[in-house]
Design goal:
single chain; 404 residues; alpha/beta; seven-stranded mixed sheet; five-stranded parallel sheet; 19 strands; 25% strand
Amino acid sequence: MTPAPVTVVGIGADGWPGLASASREALRHAEVIIGGPRQLGLLPGECAGERVAWPSPLRPAVPGLLAAHEGRRVCVLASGDPMFFGIGRTLAEIVGEERLNVLPHPSSASYACARLGWPLHDTEVVSLVGRPLAALTAALHDGRRLLLLSAGAQTPAEVAALLRERGYGPSRLAVLEQLGGDRERRVEGTADDWPHPAGDPLNVIAVTCRRAPGALRLPLTPGLPDDAYDHDGQLTKRHVRAVTLAALAPSPGELLWDVGGGSGSIGIEWMRAHSSCRAVSVERDPVRAGRVARNAEALGVPGLRVVTGAAPAALAGLPTPDAVFTGGGLTAPGMLEACWEALPRGGRLVANTVTLESEALLTEWYRRHGGELTRLAVAHAVPVGGFTGWRQAMPVTQWAVVKA
């Protein structure tokens, strides 16, 4: 027999009075109601089903909890719209989309935009619930409007501190608490002089981004300024980095191996291309590996995975990549072979070098597998006495290929 569907009911701060008739009916007839203690406490006595609070951590417990109540009419309570940064996604992955009956409530983002007069489709939403605060950095652009789903009462002050640290102290913040409920409240200020103590843990933070004069500008395009990175000289320089990212061609959800991470710039800018892009940086030097992690956090991609170890041995057991970049160590025995073998059909490999020995190796691989072999030459204007002349950087040979 087909298992009974799981009904997911979204509920807001207005509780039972704010629910649509279909949501009320589902809760009245449920034999089991699963939710957080706060949501369960919003239900009246006429909802007679057994009330079960989610354990912590939540996700590992979901399969067993649902299995324990198999065959009963189960309702899951969720905040607002269950499919908007909510439990709905987890349930869809575990029990299957076809078994879900979702009855949404307006999301906190919808409420917030209604209060602020902001168009929701033009407002970027960033969840800080169970996610590193540093991920906010990637969304900071002068003039942009952001809605931050707060992790709790302390989050507004933490956001204000991060904005000051990242050069966005003039940004305007509005904290909207208990949206839709009878205790709804709004407080405002700037990050530079955030004056408010911790308030209600149920809040959304609206940010109008304003960059301070002289603060470093971090664009969306690859090729961030070299001084955006903490480095010891082991850095793929800006113009070569932009060409390299273009050759790697990141797409949403893809995974990159950055072999020989250096300062982490290739993996970091791969992940900045889209919020769902993933990267593993493999660096043999522990000091540099630590620097990669710090750069990733400072530039808004704290999810970058750093593996400390020498390639190719350190590549064993890593998840299959969609693309591989290597900017050094090409002549290490088995390096290119290991990268090539790890790639699936259609995967991309990009390798950069400045040495004749590695260039000869890339030329041989180009002869065998095709692709594009390119020499990149960059010169910068520098003072020459009272005049200006060109200073040539070392030329870079790049091999880029798609595995057939």
